[in-house]
Amino acid sequence: MKLPWDRISPIQLVDTVTGQSVREPTEVRACWSSSAWYVQFRCTDHYVVSVFEKRDDPLYEQDVVEVFIDEEGDGHRYLEVELSPYNVVFDARIKREKDGAVCADVSWDMELLETRVFIESSAMRVYEFRFPLETFTRKPQVGMEWRVNFYRIDEQPEGTREYQAWGPTREVNYHLPSRFGRLLFV
Known about the structure:
This protein has strands at residues 11-12, 14-15, 26-32, 36-44, 64-70, 77-83, 89-96, 102-105, 114-121, 124-132, 145-155, 161-165, 181-184. The chain is 0% helix and 45% strand. The chain is mainly beta and 186 residues long.
């Protein structure tokens, strides 16, 4: 299925702590069909760091894009799906306790998840996810809302990291569901 990415308005990720612009911009687009939810990240990236090769390796330690999905919107159970620059997947079911402790079940794999990563130009890397709707308890329908957040961790040549988010968490911690945005299916 060819998706109309060029006709979908992007959102810009910002610095997760300050909410300000970032050095290496990231645009995210999303759309859905009767069978899947699709997400695309377009990342300016002049310097790539990623050595991981196996599913569920700790991709978050290097360059990565991430999607957090809280179908119920209560912040207690959500999905975390990550993709490395070389199309390696990390997926987990997350349980967040009332005290903020996070437990990740990495033994879970999202069945039928499809991903791809390609280089569009020397400084543009594109990441695409196809999330099968049968994965979700609350399948999208017009007017439904999920709590989600989109993130990117970008290693810089001098050894610093840039943390980006759709909904800034105001700290270097992506596991703050109260900061997830509201995604409305239209």
